[in-house]
């Protein structure tokens, strides 16, 4: 598996926030960042790889989505919708779906 793209978190930033954002590690790969962390004796240097979304540490995606919608003054839709792949396959409701590394590898 190649390097993970972590830029998905940027969707929540507005232009004002983006204009004040700095990515000091942006040119470094993960092994270089881990080495810097080791040199600084940071415990995160030896943290195991995760396949979870970092901002949903509990793994409870439904709770996360409900909280996110609540902050926006919205509610989870009453009716479940289908999650449809790019090939047209219906694979269940979004709240019941987790993308695994093997799913990602299949495309």
Task: Give a description of the structure.
With 107 residues, this protein is mostly helical. The protein has four helices and no strands. It has helices at 15-19, 30-39, 61-71, 101-106. The longest helix is centred in the middle third of the chain and has 11 residues, at 61-71. The protein is extended and about 50 Å long. It starts with 14 loop residues before the first helix and ends with a helix. Mean pLDDT is 77; it is low at 102-107.
List keywords for this structure.
extended, about 110 residues, disordered C terminus, 4 helices, mainly alpha
Number of helices: 4
Q: Structural class of the helix and strand makeup?
A: mainly alpha
Assembly state (oligomeric): single chain
> What kind of sheet is the major sheet?
none
Q: Gist?
A:
With about 110 residues, the chain is mainly α.
Give the topology, please.
Layout: H1 15-19, H2 30-39, H3 61-71, H4 101-106
